[in-house]
Write a structure and sequence with these properties.
12 strands, 3-stranded antiparallel beta sheet, alpha/beta, binds pyridoxal-5'-phosphate, single chain
Length: 347
């Protein structure tokens, strides 16, 4: 039997047609479709405007530069996250100030941040991990500029307002495994025209009045053509993710696992469906693989393990226990039944 991949983009004829039309038009680099895509995403999130870039990492990099974060500055990032966040802090020659996540969850812990605040901290990268909105209100109250990271949470909401509309800046990734995709790609969003002007200026290098180091972080119209179709389908994608999550919640309630956290007033979009097991995570993953279900640890390795310093109790706990099972709009009813059967058997 064919195994069920852990994640998979949901792409169809409409994307194919849109991209094909763009290729044949000859306007394949950054052009007017990128502008249209920026406008559409800004409207969807409810912010003034947006700048499309080549990846989520590029979006984070330019956001830090727009906030003028540099040498001798520090940036708070979560421990339980991907190394992209660590990279971008290093790109601008700042230092990471790593903070723990909340107990039993995966988002930044406001109390832990509070204990780490100093004058050198110039930004907080607030990731809405796996689709569940983080404690935005508490974290904004520290008065440090917040960059919301929606790479896994496009379309999630906090008290009825879309995430991405709270921070000084927010960033999205359109990588293949994210909520919606353009293959590779990203975007910076903000209500501040000043900040976005800096981002726009740094995104490309040609025909500028002055010289400074700039980048080639452009998105192409081919990507935007795909993104516009994906954005239209996003509400339907999210509905499907929630339906699958409900099915998993219901089917696994008697299983010996901790089900995903849900919080009042936060619209989870289930970019990942994660349960926690008591012990034996890697052998559970192996056994699921043997049964044709590609499950994964949602974070390959927490940042403190790479840096070999610090102790982050909740992050370590998540690393030892979190199991991510397939969830995406194109997962069939038969696939999700197979996932549940395999999980029940293995546990
Ligand atoms: C994927 C991801 C990124 C990086 O995005 P790329 O487009 O791969 O550079 C940043 N932050 C989070 C939370 C992500 O999941």
């Amino acid at each position: 039997m064919k195994s069920i991949p852990h994640s998979r983009p949901t792409i169809g004829e409409a994307e194919l047609e849109s991209v094909a039309g763009t290729i044949l038009s000859g306007n394949i680099a950054q052009g007017s479709l990128v502008d249209t895509f920026e406008r559409a995403v800004a409207d969807f999130i409810g912010v003034r405007s947006a700048v499309a870039v080549s990846s989520g990492s590029a979006a984070l990099h330019l956001s830090l530069l727009a906030l003028k974060v540099g040498k001798d500055d520090q940036v708070i990032i979560p421990d339980y996250t991907c190394t992209a966040l660590l990279n971008v802090v290093r790109y601008v020659e700042a230092s990471p100030r790593i903070a723990d996540i909340i107990p039993g969850g995966y988002n930044l812990d406001p109390l832990d941040i509070k204990g780490r605040l100093t004058r050198d901290i110039k930004a907080i990268v607030l990731v809405h991990s796996f689709g569940l909105p983080a404690d935005i209100k508490e974290i904004k109250s520290f008065g440090v500029p917040v960059i919301e990271d929606l790479a896994q949470a496009m379309g999630a909401d906090y008290r009825g307002k879309p995430v991405g509309s709270f921070g000084e800046l927010s960033i999205v990734s359109f990588y293949a495994t994210k909520v919606m995709t353009t293959g590779e790609g990203g975007m910076v969003l903000s209500n501040s025209s000043d900040l976005l002007e800096r981002v726009r200026d740094l995104r490309d290098y040609d025909e500028k009045k002055d010289y400074k180091v700039r980048y080639n972080y452009k998105m192409t119209d081919m990507q935007a053509a795909m993104g516009l179709v994906q954005l239209k389908r996003l509400p339907e994608f999210i509905e499907k993710r929630r339906e699958i999550a409900d099915y998993y919640n219901e089917s696994l309630k008697e299983a010996p696992v901790c089900l995903p956290m849900s919080l009042e007033g936060r619209g989870h979009i289930y970019h990942r469906y994660i349960v926690e097991v008591e012990r034996g995570l890697s052998s559970i993953i192996d056994s699921l693989k043997k049964r044709g279900v590609d499950a994964k640890m949602p974070i390959y390795k927490p940042l403190h393990r790479y840096l070999k310093k610090g102790s982050f109790k909740n992050s370590l706990n998540a690393w030892n226990r979190a199991l991510s099972v397939p969830i995406y709009p194109s997962l069939t009813d038969e696939d999700r039944e197979r996932v549940v059967e395999a999980v029940k058997e293995v546990l």
